[in-house]
Write a structure and sequence with these properties.
Strand content: over 45%
Radius of gyration: 23 Å
CATH class: Mainly Beta
Shape: globular
Order of helices and strands: HEEEEEEEEHEEEEEEEEEEE
Number of strands: 19
Largest sheet: 18 strands, antiparallel, barrel
Length: 497
């Protein structure tokens, strides 16, 4: 989940049945309780199973459930950490410069680590030196700067009761600029995750998270366009839970999240502080040994502390499938529908929150999400990701916006230790004016974005990797204050002890 969540070109209003709307909202509110109850019941079931038979590993070879939820989709244009990073290769854990926005689960770091009694510790460190020729991501008065990044972290893994485990994960991202100290940040994430893996295919993950983050310069969530102002900083605290059951032919997964955002500076709190609740149900049915059909239904509810004219619920329903054809082609695709409901929002607020005067309470949009993987040789892997989804925004004069784009990544192993990486991205953001329509009016905004990232990674020894990367970013907006282009060069090193 993230600061701006999805939007698209509006079509005719769709009246969602009251019973469905109320049911989904209630689904969001009680989902966490349901997962807790399931965890207790599953524990009892495991105890009974252990009395009758020795524990065994859960079944392998199940096709993974497609990530069908547009509610949790994060565009790389919204989160530059997804393209310019300290990540080494896909085989390495996600350490170092990490995704900024809350939600999800900390990745389990593989390997032996450092054993301290029953604990398995995985300390890690990332360091990078960057240069950018447009640190504020503006279209005039461009300012260049050098940026030093330090990203230490540690994960503690504690197994218990057979296949279960507890993860304690902490990581921080310290960025220091040579000339523009207003950009200095120290992001932090601390999370605790219980992972229950029961015999028979039942898995339950429960996680609590505290995050201190910021809105990256030039991202879709960044509304600071004046040089000299500090970046928007915030805290997010919340809970994520998931219950998944994988049978011989079918799988079902229930995911819930609840996070409260608190903005800390630049007078952002009155308009942006909010509670976000999300719930999604995914069903999967194997068609063949290497393909499956997938269906998803979910809701994302946003409740603002003060800015009540933006209170809304985004409903998503989609269907699609996954496939794996030999060692060459694999992927997943979801196609569906999203509807944004502002029925409960209050448009009659005193200044400064009286900026919205929408002409209707319901907007609908076509939705799709996919990953197409092609591996023509053992050394080359190419992934194409098309997407279209609704995202929320607090940009003045806009209710929400739609992201439509495609991202291409390629990874080529030059040697056993050296990898060449390429990333190409194109996206269009269409903002829905608060006064209605997207084709007229002074508040209408449309952004065309593209980026190119190319880099090389070298694994010097088993526990240390080196990287070099060049990133080009470009955004052309109908509102010229949001237009910019930037060039960034980065040298990095990452260690995993």
């Amino acid at each position: 989940m993230r600061d701006k969540n999805y939007r698209g070109l509006p079509t005719a209003p769709v009246q969602t049945p009251d019973f469905l709307r109320s049911s989904l909202i209630r689904f969001v509110q009680i989902g966490a309780c349901a997962i807790g109850v399931l965890a207790v019941l599953a524990t009892a079931e495991m105890t009974l199973a252990q009395q009758s038979a020795p524990p065994s590993a859960p079944p392998q070879g199940q096709a993974p459930l497609a990530n069908a939820s547009g509610n949790t989709f994060i565009s790389q244009f919204a989160n530059p950490a997804l393209r310019g990073s300290l990540y080494l290769t896909p085989q390495w854990p996600m350490t170092g410069y990490y995704p900024l926005f809350p939600g999800g689960f900390a990745p389990v770091i593989p390997g032996d680590g450092i054993l301290v009694g029953p604990l398995r510790l995985h300390p890690h460190m990332g360091v990078a030196q960057m240069y950018t020729d447009n640190v504020f991501r503006t279209n005039s008065n461009r300012t260049s700067d050098f940026l030093t990044t330090l990203s230490p972290g540690i994960q503690a893994q504690l197994p218990f009761a057979g296949f279960h485990s507890f993860l304690l994960d902490y990581r921080t991202n310290i960025q220091t600029y040579s000339r523009t100290s207003s950009n200095d940040v120290q992001d932090q994430t601390a999370s605790g995750t219980f992972k229950f893996d029961f015999p028979g295919g039942l898995k339950i993950d429960l996680a609590g998270e505290h995050k201190l983050g910021h809105d990256p310069r030039g991202s879709a969530v960044d509304n600071v366009i004046k040089q000299g102002l500090t970046v928007n900083k915030w805290t997010a605290n919340g809970f994520t839970g998931q219950v998944q059951y994988a049978g011989a032919q079918s799988s079902v997964s229930l995911n819930v999240q609840s996070f409260h955002w608190n903005y800390l500076n630049n007078n952002q709190g009155s308009s942006r502080d909010r509670l976000m609740n999300q719930a999604g149900l995914t069903l999967s049915r194997n068609v063949t040994g290497k393909s499956s059909l997938v269906a998803y239904v979910g809701a994302l509810q946003s409740i603002y502390d003060q800015n009540k004219n933006l209170d809304n619920v985004i409903y998503t329903i989609s269907g699609g499938g996954t496939w794996n054809v030999g060692d060459v082609t694999s992927g997943d695709i979801q196609i569906g529908y999203q509807n944004v409901q502002f029925t409960l929002a209050n448009v009659n607020q005193p200044p400064p929150l009286d900026q919205f005067s929408r002409d209707k309470d319901s907007y609908s949009n076509f939705y799709f999400m996919g990953h197409l993987n092609w591996q023509p040789t053992p050394l080359l892997r190419i992934t194409l990701q098309p997407y279209r989804a609704i995202q929320q925004t607090v940009t003045t004069g806009s209710l929400f916006f739609t992201v439509t784009g495609v991202n291409l990544t390629a990874r080529h192993d030059l040697t056993d230790r050296t990898t060449l990486n390429l990333n190409l991205g194109v996206e269009q953001d269409e903002f829905q004016s608060s006064s209605g329509g997207t084709t007229s009016g002074s508040n209408n905004r449309s952004d065309n974005l593209k980026n190119i990232a190319v880099g090389v990674n070298y694994q010097a020894v088993k526990w240390i990797g080196l990287g070099a990367q060049y990133i080009f970013e470009d955004r052309h907006s109908t509102q010229t204050q949001f237009t910019f282009h930037a060039n960034t060069f980065m040298l990095s090193a990452q260690t995993l002890f």
